[in-house]
Amino acid sequence: MLKLIKADLHIHSCLSPCSDWDMSPKKIVQRSVEQQLDLIAICDHNTAENVAATMREGDHQGIVVLPGMEICSREEVHMVTLFKNAEDAMEMQHFIYKHLSGNNQPEVFGHQVIADEHDQVLGENPRLLIGATGLSLMNIVKKTHDLGGISISSHVDRPSYSLIGQLGFIPEDLQLDAVEVSFRMPLEKARIEVPGIEDYPCITSSDAHFLHDIGKVWTEFMLGAPSLEELILALAGKNGRHIVN
User: Fold this and answer.
1) For residue 144, what pLDDT is reported?
2) Which of 151, 156, 170, 210 has CA 20 to 30 A from 141's CA?
């Protein structure tokens, strides 16, 4: 039986240097439950080290957490990538780390806190997570698909770090699964004003860096269950699964 699933598929934790310290795995899940979300995804910049803890806390509080990353390509385009399990996300992280150079300067870019589901700080990531990888968009999408994941072009309505903002168009051979519109622009307006996205499934996500932004916008899906497998069907419009809004 299909049911309506309310999803926010782009949330940053305290591991992203531009995110708030309060964005711990435990507090993210608590806020998501308060916002009556059914499905969320943790997508930190170029890393997945807080994914497993958030998934465990999601299991505890009764909300499904998908493992993800927001990867910055060498073209300085942000791409949300989502995976079936934490192991696949960590394999993607291993791949990304091989193509990510530089060390973080916390006093300049912010702290990159690794935390567990009990709000305990486990350490800080020393890499320059806010930087661009040496990977092309094509490389990122291909590796994501090789791992059974999906690739969503981040905040296509924004002038910076978006596919349209950086390139001015969507390459025809870039096998995107969907495009994401930010809270800054209604989906109806984006479909008219953002060139090229009318041919792709469109979702909207909070891109939350602060607790009060979680669930600020969301996407509703008709799914059999809150899972990546069901999302893949919905984005393709198969077996009755689909995007509602």
Assistant:
1) 98
2) 210
